[in-house]
Write a structure and sequence with these properties.
Elements lengths: L6 E4 L2 H24 L4 H24 L3 E4 L3 E4 L4 E4 L3 E5 L11 E14 L3 E10 L5 H20 L1
Antiparallel strand pairs: 1-2, 2-3, 3-4, 5-6, 6-7
Length: 158
């Protein structure tokens, strides 16, 4: 079988930097408020903790969205080579308006559960559900979802 990439999904640069910037700004603002206004000690610790957490999340979002998702005939994987899901493990795909899915994305339901994983802004996996999307352009995720749906239909009918 071929290892040809059928579709790719990568983070939209404006959305990526807006998300990273907003998280970093919020973290910096919370730390500033905690250190400049001297609230009660418990609140100061809370503000510092949430501020540091927001800065860590900003860095995690920055690193996660530097990857690209690639769809081949055998699997959905990251540009680093990590397999997210094999095509033969996909049970169904949901991209409806009321689906519990990431923004501009879709949800894959698998036959077998896998370990939890979260790459902020790009994809996540909890049990038998995999969400793809977030800071990604809608046309890329829609194209990938349609190709996966066609692959599932072809597999189930043939």
């Amino acid at each position: 079988m071929s290892d040809e990439v059928l579709a790719t999904v990568s983070a939209s640069p404006p959305r990526r930097w807006l998300g990273v910037g907003m998280l970093a700004f919020m973290g910096g603002l919370l730390i500033y408020v905690a250190l400049s206004t001297q609230p009660a000690f418990g609140w100061q610790l809370f503000l510092l903790g949430v501020g540091i957490g927001a800065l860590l999340m900003a860095d995690r979002l920055r690193r996660a969205t530097s990857m690209t998702l690639e769809l081949t005939a055998q699997e959905l994987r990251t540009s680093g080579g990590e397999t997210i899901v094999r095509i033969d493990n996909i049970k169904s795909l949901d991209r409806g308006m009321f689906a519990f899915k990431p923004s501009n994305g879709f949800v894959i339901r698998t036959l077998q559960a896998d370990s939890r994983r979260w790459e902020s802004g790009l994809w996540w996996r909890i049990g038998r559900r995999i969400g793809v999307g977030g800071v990604t352009p809608g046309h890329q995720t829609k194209n990938m979802a349609e190709i996966i749906a066609a692959m599932i239909a072809q597999r189930d009918n043939g």
